[in-house]
Each structure stands twice: as C-alpha cells, then as structure tokens.
Amino acid sequence: MAKGYRAPSGGGKGQGNMMANLAKLQEQMAQAQAEVAEETVTESAGGGAVSVTMSGNQVCKGVQIDPGLLEDVDAEMLQDMILAAVNKALDSSRALSEEKMAPFTSMLGGLGMGF
Prior knowledge:
The chain has a domain at 34-107: Nucleoid-associated protein YbaB-like domain (Ybab, Chain: A), CATH 3.30.1310.10. The chain has a three-stranded antiparallel sheet with strand order 1-2-3. The chain is 54% helix and 16% strand. It is of the alpha+beta class.
C-alpha cells in the first residue's frame, strides 16, 4: 500500500446501497416498459378514413379503414393514407415511450451512463 493510503470507511456499504438502488431502478424501468407496452395510441389519415392503433412499444394493434372510402378510392391513394397513418402512429408511440421512460434516462445519464 502506498504511504498515507486510507481505505474507504463504511465497509462497502455505499457500494451495496448503490447496487440496491440500481436493482430497484432496473425493476422500476421494467415495470414502466411493461406499462408502455400496454398503452396504445391511435392516429389517422385522410380525415379519419384510415386509422392505425399502435402500442407504446411500436407493435401495430389494428388498422381501420372506413368502408365508404373503399367505394371510390384508388389503391395508391389508400396505400398513401395507410402509410401516413402508420408513420404518425409510430411517431406518437415513440413519444409516449420517451415520455414514460424520461425519468429513468435522466437518472441513468446523471450516473454517467450516457443515456
């Protein structure tokens, strides 16, 4: 040992507390991720003619097309509406996830974990 070296006091309790806090944080993050996966967002295109429902973890849960739209719409226009609704739903789903997970990412960033 180097001359004048003093071992940290507390017998490692600080590290044990940090590990317990990290374990608790991990558990809370898992719970938040499960909650995000259960939540859904719905976005539409074409004035509501096409709607897409997406979960918070970006799983498409449903696509609704107004039956009246099918009477006089061409395939390309329908495809564009579906694409627009899916992309809007994905954006909303990502925003929902970021909102729910923000407390954890800021905590982890504060610990120097680069989130």
